[in-house]
Amino acid sequence: MTTSFCDCQVLVVGAGPTGLVLAAQLLARGIDTRIIDKGDGPARESRAVSVHARTLEVLDTMGLADAFIEHGHRGRRFRMYAGNRSLLNLDMTRNGSRYGFILNLAQSETERLLRSRVHELGGMIEQRSELAGLSQHGDGVDATLRFADGRETEIRAGYVVGCDGAHSRVRHELGLAFDGQPYAGEFLLADVGLDGVGSEDASHLFFRPDGRTLVCLPMAQHRWRVVMPNAGERGGRPPTLEEVQEQVGQRAPWPITVSDPGWLACFRCHLRSTTAYRRGRVLLAGDAAHIHTPAGGQGMNTGMMDAANLAWKLALVAGGHAAGSLLDTYQTERLPAGANTLGFTNKLFQWSTMRHPVKRAVRDVLVPAATALPAVQHRAARRLSQVSVSYPAGPLVLVHALHLQREAHVLRDGLARVQGVVLEHHRDVPVLGRDEGDVLLADLDPPAVQRLQPGQHAQRGGLARSGRADQDHELAVLDVQVEGVDRGRRVLGVHPGGIHVLHACHGGPPSRTAPAARTFTCFT
Ligand SMILES: Cc1cc2nc3c(=O)[nH]c(=O)nc-3n(C[C@H](O)[C@H](O)[C@H](O)COP(=O)(O)OP(=O)(O)OC[C@H]3O[C@@H](n4cnc5c(N)ncnc54)[C@H](O)[C@@H]3O)c2cc1C
To answer: Whose alpha carbon is nearest atom 27 of ligand 1?
Structure first.
């Protein structure tokens, strides 16, 4: 073994969607980041296909949403049928996001786009480089890397994030359990051409009394992703095209013809999660922390949201601008979000594979009746899109979400909500908002809004304030110098979860200050 002191501020283990989002966001914030992956290169299989609105909002802050949309397929509806009877026709344009659709795009494409962003930002993905061991010290983490030829080297990183998937070595090194259980029966998956399924503007879920559901998701170039749970015990043997046709024929309520096979797979799903996302300087994100069925296409999205939540906090802590305790809020916010995703996907799976005749009868009456209500459509579309994720009970939250809902009711967009809430509740702080890539800074007296481009500094009379937007990211961090009456320094940020005062200090450098960690809003 050789020892190298090639230090980096953050070591990202795993270059799947989670690790790539994290690495790109850290690099964009100037954090010295290494990203390793034990595989040969980008994923070749299509795997996760659904990219939801909340993920697109984050990708937009990374300048990537347009490229994703260009390569993917937009479906505006999410439909469920019991036999040939329509149970649900969910209108995704009601999700409250400017991305009123589900974007279907092969995970291999998602990873390709993210990888090129990492490279553009100066990052290098070290392939065939496997994390083999970890040990933590007061000021860093020693990581043993093993290469394909068996050589090992040890590096020291300030922080290590395990984005290394369901069989996470990082989680194993931390000694954290991955509690849960497998689902009975394997899933079949096929990327194919389909004739007769229905509109390409919708995802179609066909329920059957025997629980053998058929899921058909439209992809670009008239391709479809077919998923079929409860396919029995096949020992992971992928289906042939003939088997896919036979299964589709049995499960579909009307004739559907399958053709032109691409990726065909058989896999088993588990419902599992870890009990902690952080141990000291080592953190977990994505499938390393939670796995579940593909119901609702939540997994990859949840991992990318973990990464987005962690990136700005880790950048501030690793960069010496916030205390390490800020990282605790990552677990406090994202562990319940992960648990919520597990509960949601499990419920969706149970509902879609229900066999008990009485329960099915109740479902088949309740779902159409409830979803005829616009409020239920709105709520369901927001939930599926992950737009409804917020952290109202977390330690960064100061204002109760109820206030925000009231404000949101009268004010149209996020910026307006932010202004309304802060003006009402916190007259001693600048008001921040974010609108279409700009950061907005407002003084309270008189109320005024100043539009800052990323990187631009602002000065106002009265209280002199200068703010610098942290490029075009989800979190628009403003490092605000307040002179005069309110002498001190605050780092403020706004992200979809709310506005945060990361620390407020009077005098000394911010890194020595405990984070005040107050949030002024939380979108519902
Ligand atoms: C068939 C299928 C269909 C799916 N459909 C959907 C869907 O429609 N929507 C959705 O949201 N999700 C879906 N998912 C789930 C989705 O694929 C995962 O949630 C997603 O890939 C998780 O991303 P990740 O980056 O956390 O982990 P992964 O994608 O698993 O990436 C982990 C990476 O870590 C690397 N690695 C592992 N161990 C080490 C180590 N010791 N050292 C270095 N590197 C290591 C691996 O090589 C890998 O590249 C599906 C999954 C499957 C299997």
So the answer is: 165
As a whole-number percent, the residues of the chain with pLDDT over 90 amount to 62
Query: Closest Cα partner for 148 from 132, 164, 124, 166?
Result: 132
Å from CA of 366 to ligand 1 middle: 35
pTM for this predicted structure: 0.82
Asked if residue 512 has pLDDT above 50, the reply is: no
Distance 427 CA to ligand 1 centre (A): 45
Cα–Cα distance for residue pair 177/234, rounded to 1 Å: 28
Contact 231, 14 (CB under 8 A): no
> Does residue 18's CB lie within 6 angstroms of at least one atom of ligand 1?
yes
- Chain CA centroid to CA 241, Å: 33
- Cβ–Cβ under 8 Å, residues 521 and 398: no
Is 287's C-beta closer than 6 angstroms to any atom of ligand 1? yes
CA of 518 to the centre of ligand 1 (A): 33
* DSSP 8-state secondary structure symbol assigned to residue 42: S
The bridge status of strand 152-162 relative to strand 8-13 is parallel
pLDDT average, residue stretch 310-325: 82
* 196: number of Cβ within 10 Å: 11
Q: Find tokens 């100037």 and name the residue.
A: 30
What is the average per-residue pLDDT within 472-500? 35
Over 50: is that where the pLDDT of 270 sits?
A: yes
With a 6 Å cutoff on the Cβ, whether 50 touches ligand 1 is yes
The pLDDT assigned to 466 comes to 35
